[in-house]
Amino acid sequence: MNIKSLLGKIQWRRDLIRLWVAGTVTWAVLWFLGAGLFPQSLTSAQLGDFASIFVGVPAFLWALLFAGFWIASGFTREQSK
Question: Which of 3, 14, 25, 29 falls between 20 and 30 A from 56, CA-CA?
Fold first, then answer.
């Protein structure tokens, strides 16, 4: 089996989404572990910053992923029958 045939069998969209979910979960776990290791009371401004980083970064990266899928789908042509 050569690399071209192997790459042709990969379901890119499904596999990238799985990889992205694993990365997002890892991101969340690391943030919660960091918050648990260094407990401190947060002011409302610090809590807002934490929430924007905790939620904003993964949401931005998810948007980039799906924008990439949308762009890539524009390059494929569906054959009409």
Answer: 14
> Residues near 13 by Cβ (< 8 Å), separated by ≥ 6?
69
| Separation in Å, CA 63 to CA 42, 66, 73, 75, 78 | 29, 5, 15, 19, 24
Angle of helix 12-37 versus helix 44-75 axis, rounded to 10: 170
First to last CA, the chain: 32
Q: What is the pTM of this model?
A: 0.53
Pairwise CA distance, residues 49 & 55, whole Å: 10
58: helix, coil or strand? helix
